[in-house]
Amino acid sequence: MSPLRTLSIVLAASLTGACTLMPDYQRPTAPVPTAFPQAASAPAEATPADAIAWRDYFADAQLREVIALALANNRDLRIAALNIEKARAQYGIQRADLFPAVGATGGQTAQRLPGDLTASGNAEINRQYSATIGFSAYELDFFGRIRSLNAASLETYLGTEEARRSAQISLVAEVANVWLTLAADRERLALARSTYETRLKSRDLIRRSADEGAVSALEYNQAQTLLQGAHADVARFTTLVAQDENALALVVGAAVPAEWLPATLTDHISAVPELPAGVPSAVLARRPDILQAERNLRAANASIGAARAAFFPSISLTAAAGSASSTLGGLFEGGSGTWSFMPQIRIPIFEAGRLKASLDVAEVQRDINVAQYEKAIQTAFREVADALAERATLAEQVDARRQQLDATQAGFRLSDARYQGGVDSYLGLLDAQRTLYLAEQDLIIVRLADAANRVTLYKVLGGGWQ
């Protein structure tokens, strides 16, 4: 059997039959309960959150446009996408080690010998030309060291894919929450301006009545106090609206057109009435951040295989075949063929504990990744449980605030009628105005909490990456 044929058989065996010393991967048991607390029952055919695209979940057309603009311009998401490209290239570099790096070389060697070193006694110049193709120091992966490193690199690459999906989920939720906060603050600013104008008219009326002696100075000062309180609220909400617009422009990564900004807070942020919570083991396993943690765990598990393989002999090959001649013209003539084959084996004998320490590092890193994976699951479970706990009472809170506002409006109308009829003093009417204004503010706040909770629940259940 020729040496080149023998070499080809050895290479084929190394590529197809190499073993690996990686431990068998087993997903750790999720350290969380088997059901979410306070999770409402959902129909069996209900679509899970992670299967609902964000365009199908958010009902407001303006918000959808803003989210699309953010996905195209946000720098954090762009960095996450570039990290994927970087990891893909690094995986390509690592995977290339599975194959020999074949290259062609051509060269000339010239040497001058003095006369006392030649048979003729005259000085001579010897030249040798060569052209070969081959590879150098190709490691036969009998014990899976390179395959383990390749597997670790692949898991790292796949982990960056999950990181980008997780970044998109966070971005979609952040844009929606900032947009909703802007809507609520704009509505509160409009309420403060309306209240200020109403109280300004009341204050002017009371001042004229005070000049005529019809009301006391106490009533005038109370009206002035309420007026300036509304004035301060106008200034405060004007600042908040400007800050919200700045925050929205930052998270979007570009200027947001005015026609996409909300005027008031919508009560129909979601096109899906209720999201099914599902079973924790299934829901959490679909979240990209947990999938990323599992990819990191798989990479650490593969690294153990590489550390174990370092204890075994490594075989490397250097081979070349081509043509050589003393003249350039005879380089490719018959009989000028040449080849070389240089196998090398390295057996570790004494490493002063380096190999054992490297294995310890790999195993400890695997244990660290197990703990990080379990913590990611526990954190995700709490996020879902907290969102569900808030969801369970928000509808009741909104209904209570609406009824409170209705009662407050009725009380204000009754106070106004009693004041106009001369039954009560103006102080009673001012107190009714103050109570009504606070009730209107409270309703806006709880409506914002309800909308933000729907966004949060969509996020923590893994929705928004599609």
Pick out its properties.
466 residues; alpha+beta; Outer membrane efflux proteins (OEP); 4-stranded antiparallel sheet; 4 strands; elongated
**CATH architecture assignment:** Up-down Bundle
| CATH fold-level topology | Outer membrane efflux proteins (OEP)
Under CATH, the homologous superfamily reads: Outer membrane efflux proteins (OEP)
Q: What is the general shape?
A: elongated
Low confidence ranges: 1-17
**How far is the N terminus from the C terminus?**
58 Å
**Share in β-strands:** 5-15%
The H/E string reads HHHHEEHHHHEEHH
Instruction: Write out the strand line-up for the largest beta sheet, numbering strands in chain order.
Output: 1-2-3-4
Overall number of domains: 1
Please count the beta strands (DSSP E, at least 2 residues each): 4
Question: What is the CATH C level class, in words?
Answer: Mainly Alpha
* Rg from alpha-carbon coordinates: 38 Å
Classification by helices and strands: alpha+beta
Mean pLDDT: 83
How is the quaternary structure best described? Answer: single chain
Characterize the main sheet. Answer: 4 strands, antiparallel
Helix content: 55-70%
Helical segment count: 10
